[in-house]
Amino acid sequence: MPSKEMYALGSQASVIRDLFAYGQEQAAVVGRENVFDFSIGNPTVPAPACVKEAIEEIVATRQSVDVHGYTAAAGDLAVRRGLADYMNQTYDAGVSADNFYMTCGAAASLTVTLKALVESPEDEVIVVAPFFPEYTVFIHNAGAKEVVLPPDTEHFQISLEAMEQAITPHTRAIIVNSPNNPAGTVYSADTYTKLAALLTKKSADIGHSIYLISDEPYREIIYDGLPILYVPKFYANTIICYSYSKSLSLPGERIGYILVPDCAADAKAVYTAVCGAGRAMGFVCAPHLFQDVVLKCMGKLSDMNIYDENRKLLYNGLKEMGYECVYPSGAFYLFVKSPEPDANAFSEKAKKLNLLIVPADSFGCPGYVRISYCVDPDMIRRSFAAFKTLIESYA
Amino acid sequence: MPSKEMYALGSQASVIRDLFAYGQEQAAVVGRENVFDFSIGNPTVPAPACVKEAIEEIVATRQSVDVHGYTAAAGDLAVRRGLADYMNQTYDAGVSADNFYMTCGAAASLTVTLKALVESPEDEVIVVAPFFPEYTVFIHNAGAKEVVLPPDTEHFQISLEAMEQAITPHTRAIIVNSPNNPAGTVYSADTYTKLAALLTKKSADIGHSIYLISDEPYREIIYDGLPILYVPKFYANTIICYSYSKSLSLPGERIGYILVPDCAADAKAVYTAVCGAGRAMGFVCAPHLFQDVVLKCMGKLSDMNIYDENRKLLYNGLKEMGYECVYPSGAFYLFVKSPEPDANAFSEKAKKLNLLIVPADSFGCPGYVRISYCVDPDMIRRSFAAFKTLIESYA
C-alpha cells in the first residue's frame, strides 16, 4: 500500500469539485441554461491579445533549442530583470533580478516558500480565516503545524487581538491573501500598518523574525480604484507569492514567481533556501515558453471590467433580494451570509434549485457561502429567479 | 534563518553547473571554439517540426480559455486517452487514460511517485550506481533513506547478488534508469527477467511489494536497433516515470507523466496517492498548452540520428586514442574509465586543456568520467587534439 497520508489527500472529496461535477451532470438532465454554477474560480475572461502574439512571435522567430531549453533554476535572467524593472516602476519596489524565483504558479510559489522557511515540526504557520483550503495541505507538506486565526466577520480584515494571541515562540510565518479568496475583500493600508507593528513587536518578543507570506494571485483584480499595496513597504519581512493565472488568465500554464526582497530578514539565505526547496520537490525551472510570454506581456492584464460588471450585477441583485453580502472589493468572489446558521444546509437548498454555491466551512468561515462570479453574465441574470425563490423560502 | 536543509540544497555547488560556468568564462578568454564543453545534458537537437506546428495550430484555432485553462489535476482526459492508445499500439501495454498522471517533467514524475510510495522514515529506496545524483535529493524529500547499489563496472547492468543483499524489510522501491545517465548503457531483457525473479522472491520474503520505479527520460534514445522494453511486462509491479524533455527536446517546458499500470500492486491506491502527492507539493496540473502539444506529437521524435552520429564519432575517436570507453547503447553520454584512479584529478587535467568532462563520483561511480555528446559535432572533432594530448600525458 502507498503512503496513507498521500492516499487520503488524493481521495479526499472536494466540495467545490463535487459541486462542479454535479453541475455537469444536471446540465445533461435539465439543460445547461438551467444550471447556475457559481462553484469554481476558473478565469472566464480570455488572456489579453499580447499572450497569443507573444507565443506566435517567439515560436516564429527563435530557435527551438532557445525557446524550449532549460532556463536557470531561478528562471531566465532576462525575464527576472524585466520583472524587477516592472516592479520598480510600478511599486518603487527597489528589487533586482536576484530577488525573483520563477515558479510553476501560485501553488508552487507557496509550497516552495513554506518548505524554504519551515525548520522543525514544531514550527507554526498562521492562516487568517477565511482562507484558501489548500493552504492546510501546503503547510503540512512543509512539515509545519497550521494555526487558524478566526475570521473577523465584522470587517473581514485581520483581528489583531486574535493575531496577538495566536503568535507563539513557534510562529514561523503568516499567510495573508488580499484580495481574498473567498471573501472578495481587500486589506487596507491601516490593516497592514497595524499588522506590521504587531509582528515587529512580537518578533522581538519571541526572538526571531516572523515572515509574512503575501499570496497575491488576485493582486490586480481590485475595484473602485482601490490602490494596490506593495506589502514589503508596510512590513519589511514579507515574501510575495504571485501567479499569472488570474491577471493573464493562464491558470493551466503554471507560471508565477516568488519575490524575496532584500529587506526581508536573512533575505539572501531565504532566497537560497527557496532555490533548495524548488530543487527538492523537482520543479527544475518554471515552464520556459511562458516565462518569455510573461516578459513580453509585462504589465498587461486580462479585461478586468468583465469581472467588475459581474460583480455589480450580482452584488446589487442579491442585496435587493435581501441577501446579506460582504461588499466585494477584489478577486471574483461574493461572500454571502447564510440565512440559516448552517451554510451547508443552505447550499443544499440552493442545489435543489440548480444554484451551485460553496459553503465556506472548508474556508474556515462557517455560516457563509462563496459565490464565484467569473462566469457568463447571462448566467447571473438567469439565476436571479432561483436566488429569489431561495431567499423567499426563509421569509 | 530559513530551513538549514533547504539552504544547504540551494547553496550546494554542482560539479556539472560549475564546469558549465567555467566553460562560459573560459570561452571569453580563449575563444568559444577552443573550449570543449562536454559537461551538460541539455538537448542540442531541435524539437521536431510538429511541436511548432502544434503550438501554432492550437493558439490559432482554439479559444484562449480552452488553451490556457486548468486541466484536471491528472491531466486533460483527451491527452491521457491519446497517450494510452499510443502506449497500447506501441508496447501492447493494456493501459487506459486512468493509468496516467501528467507531470511537470521527469523530476516531478520522480518526486511525486516517491512521495506517493514512501510511508515511514525507515523506508528505503535503492538506487543503482551509476545514477543521476538528484535521485538522492528526491528520495530525501519523500522522507526515505537512500541505499546505493555499487556499480557493476563489468557490464553496467545490475548486480543481482548486490541487489539481493541490499533489499531489507524496509525496502519500498528501487529506481532504475535505462538508457542510463551517466553510463550510456541499456538494461537487457535478461537483466529485467532476472531482476523481476529476484524482486518477486524478495517481495514474498519481506511480506510486501517492492515497487520498481523505471525512470525513462531517455527511452527512445537507443542505438543499434536495440528494442525498447516495456518494463511492466517483465515485472508487473513497475511504475514508469517519463518526460518529453529529451524525446521532443522540450526540457524547459516541464512536461512528462507517471504511468501506474493496473498490474502494479495496489495500482488504484498508488494512483490515488500519486494524485495526493502532486496536490501536496503544489503541482495543480501539468502545463496545459504542452499537454496538448504532446498529444499532437504523439510518437514523434527529435532527430536521434544526430546523437547517433556524435556517438560513433566520439566513441571511435576516443577508443582509437586508447581510452577505455563503456560501449554506448543509449542516451547521449559516453562513460570513460579514468586513466588514473582519481577521476577528479583526471578531470582537472582535462580542464587545463579546456576539455570539460564530469567525474562520476557524484554519480556513485568513482574512477569514471561522463562525456555528454549532445553537442555540436564540430566541437567533438576540434576536441580530439586535446583528448590526444590528455591520454598521452599518461603514457
TrEMBL record, chains A, B:
<keyword id="KW-0032">Aminotransferase</keyword>
<dbReference type="InterPro" id="IPR004838">
    <property type="entry name" value="NHTrfase_class1_PyrdxlP-BS"/>
</dbReference>
<dbReference type="InterPro" id="IPR015422">
    <property type="entry name" value="PyrdxlP-dep_Trfase_small"/>
</dbReference>
<dbReference type="InterPro" id="IPR015424">
    <property type="entry name" value="PyrdxlP-dep_Trfase"/>
</dbReference>
<comment type="similarity">
    <text>Belongs to the class-I pyridoxal-phosphate-dependent aminotransferase family.</text>
</comment>
<keyword id="KW-0808">Transferase</keyword>
<dbReference type="GO" id="GO:0008483">
    <property type="term" value="F:transaminase activity"/>
</dbReference>
<protein>
    <recommendedName>
        <fullName>Aminotransferase</fullName>
        <ecNumber>2.6.1.-</ecNumber>
    </recommendedName>
</protein>
<dbReference type="InterPro" id="IPR015421">
    <property type="entry name" value="PyrdxlP-dep_Trfase_major"/>
</dbReference>
<dbReference type="GO" id="GO:0030170">
    <property type="term" value="F:pyridoxal phosphate binding"/>
</dbReference>
<feature type="domain" description="Aminotransferase class I/classII large">
    <location>
        <begin position="34"/>
        <end position="382"/>
    </location>
</feature>
<dbReference type="InterPro" id="IPR004839">
    <property type="entry name" value="Aminotransferase_I/II_large"/>
</dbReference>
<dbReference type="Pfam" id="PF00155">
    <property type="entry name" value="Aminotran_1_2"/>
</dbReference>
